[in-house]
Structures are given as structure tokens and as C-alpha cells.
Design a protein that fits this description.
Streptococcus thermophilus LMG 18311 protein like; alpha+beta; 25% strand; globular; 118 residues
């Protein structure tokens, strides 16, 4: 994850209540407005147990691919690989139907398919 989040992210950090975090910390809950649509996204960033994680939701629908790419760019550097997992059905958890997740392991590199296959 980035060492410092963009001003747009930090401006939306929740700093009071049970979701509060201190400015500049890598974990936290944020309300981030999309620069084109103005739509407010709820974003939670965390790290632990060998993983970095960001959850992204809108009130009306799941985020689009383009919106997830935008969020990825807010929280990770351009050359970092992150993934959206589709776990086995027996391990799936769906608390919020309009929320998607980005993951990056911190202890190993993610394998990538050959470039010509993508």
C-alpha cells in the first residue's frame, strides 16, 4: 500500500466514533467522492495476517471495473498487483451485497498469467 494516501482519501477519513483512525495511518474507514460522478464511496483499508485489504462499496450498486481501478490507484502504487478473489462457495462471505474487495499479500508476490494471455 502507499505510504501516504492522496489528499482526496485523507479528507474523507473517519476520525471519530468506532470506525475512527488517526490521519496518516494505513488502516481506516473513508468516504471518498469519485472525481467524475461525485458519488460517495465507502472504503475501508486494513493490513494484517500477511495481507493488505481494501473494501469498496456504493449505496446503490457494486462498483464497476473502472471504479475499482480508480480505488486501486488511490491505495496502491501503479506497479503493485492486487486481486479480487472468488473463493469457494463454502468459504464465501457476503455481508454487504454492494461491496467488493481488493487484496495483496505482503509476504509473497502474486503470480501473473503470461502477458499474451491477458
Amino acid at each position: 500500500m502507499k505510504g501516504q494516501y492522496p489528499k482526496l482519501v485523507e479528507a474523507g477519513r473517519v476520525t471519530v466514533g468506532n470506525l475512527a483512525s488517526e490521519p496518516g495511518k494505513p488502516h481506516g474507514f473513508f468516504y471518498v467522492p469519485h472525481p467524475q460522478s461525485g458519488q460517495l464511496f465507502k472504503v475501508m483499508a486494513s493490513a494484517g495476517m500477511g495481507w493488505e485489504h481494501v473494501s469498496v462499496s456504493r449505496p446503490d450498486r457494486c462498483p464497476t471495473w473502472e471504479e475499482m481501478c480508480w480505488v486501486k490507484g488511490l491505495f496502491w502504487n501503479p506497479e503493485e498487483t492486487v486481486v479480487q478473489y472468488h473463493p469457494p462457495e463454502s468459504q464465501a462471505v457476503n455481508i454487504c451485497p454492494t461491496c467488493l474487495h481488493l487484496w495483496r499479500p505482503t509476504t509473497q508476490a502474486l503470480p501473473l498469467p503470461p502477458r499474451e494471455c491477458v
